[in-house]
C-alpha cells in the first residue's frame, strides 16, 4: 500500500524490492556470486583520485563456462562499472537492470564493457548471448 506522505527513499526501496521479484527472467540461468573483494577501508577522496575513481568492490559471477568479473568505482556520489565477460559466445549484449530502468551495452570483442554515471542503488546484470538462454546475476548494490 502506498501512502502519499512516504519519503522518496521509501518509494525507491519499494521499487527495488519489486524489481528483485520480477519474473521476466524465469527462463534465465542465474550466475552465482563466487567472489567479492572489498578493499580495506579508506577515506574516499573527492579530489586527486585516478581516472577510475576509488575502487569500492570487485565481484565475480560464474555460470558454467561463463565468468563475469566486475569492478565498481566511486566518483563522488556516482558509481561506474567496468568488467570482463569470459566464456564461449560469438556476440553478447550486457543488459544493466535497475529498479526503474534498463540499458543494453554491447560487449567488446575482448569481453570488456564499462558504464559510468550510475547513481547508488540496486543493480542486476543480464548477459544475452546469441543462441543461448540469458544468464542473470542476483541484485547487488553499487
Task: Give an account of the 3D structure.
- The chain has one helix and ten strands; from the N terminus they run H-E-E-E-E-E-E-E-E-E-E.
- The chain has 142 residues and is mainly beta.
- It has one domain (8-141): Immunoglobulin-like (Sandwich).
Low-pLDDT segments, ≥5 res: 42-49
Give the CATH topology.
Immunoglobulin-like
Tally of structural domains: 1
Helix-strand sequence: HEEEEEEEEEE
The CATH class, by name, is Mainly Beta
Estimate the global geometry from the Cα principal axes: globular
Task: Round the mean pLDDT to the nearest integer and report it.
Answer: 80
| Percent in helix | under 10%
Number of helices: 1
CATH A-level architecture: Sandwich
Annotation, overall tally of beta strands? 10
Q: Based on helices, strands and strand pairing, what is the structural class?
A: mainly beta
Largest sheet: 10 strands, mixed
Describe, in short, the structure shown.
The protein has 142 residues and is mainly beta. It has one helix spanning 8-20, and strands at 29-37, 54-63, 66-75, 78-86, 92-98, 101-106, 112-119, 122-129, 135-137, 140-141. Helices cover 9% and strands 51% of the residues.
